[in-house]
Amino acid sequence: MESIKSAVERSKSIGEVKSSDPLTEGARQDCKELLEDSVDDLKGMVEMAGGDIKVLLSRTDDLEHWITGVMTFIDTCADGFADEKLKADMQGILRNATELSSNALAITNSLGAIFKKLDLDVFKTDSRRRLLSAEESKYPAWMKAPERKLLASGGLPAPNAVVAKDGSGKFKTIQDAVNSMPKDHPGRYVIYVKAGVYEEMVMVPKDKVNIFMYGDGPKQSRVTGSKSFADGITTMKTATFCEP
Predict the structure, then answer these.
(1) Distance CA 9, CA 13 (A)
(2) pTM of the prediction?
(3) pLDDT (tens digit, 9 = 90+) per residue, 125-140?
(4) For the chain, where are the alpha helices, taking DSSP H only?
């Protein structure tokens, strides 16, 4: 975590002279966001364990996924620079963070395998836990009961915001509906997108983690925003739906 924080500070000078170039400036901003997201994810891992080594070891699969995500963020940061020299400079700054992340992944993988093989209590399931029904077992273990029930019922929750291209809803764009979610909203914030073609790029802020969005079907509610590297935009920002 400290290595990535250091990389954030050191990377501020990369491409500074060429900041008038939109692709270079875009790559600089992407790096800032990606590295800050990496630090946030690492903090999340620490907070998840709460200092309890048993909790940490019992979730080695989750740790491996998160660390792999951090490594992907680091690689994406450097790959965003079209200028080969700037890319090499950024890779140099990120080298220590890259190596530490790789080591952390290898250690987590090895420890998890060793402790599972030893059959320690931390990995044993609670025999008192109720068996999942056949319907519930179709869904991932991390999915909570209310979400399982919602998907199993085939029903859809009442929306907090309705988007309609023809003006029959509260919002005409999906982005406006996303932006309308209050910061202190409890539980899911449900957005219903009525049939229509929405020519926009939708950005979902990372602090809005409980948005549930549905439409009238893949051929009815369509989002057609399109951007590309050729438009002077970094690849990371070309997704139709993405996190800013």
Answers:
(1) 8
(2) 0.68
(3) 454 445 455 555 567 7
(4) 2-11, 22-49, 53-58, 60-79, 84-118, 145-153, 174-179
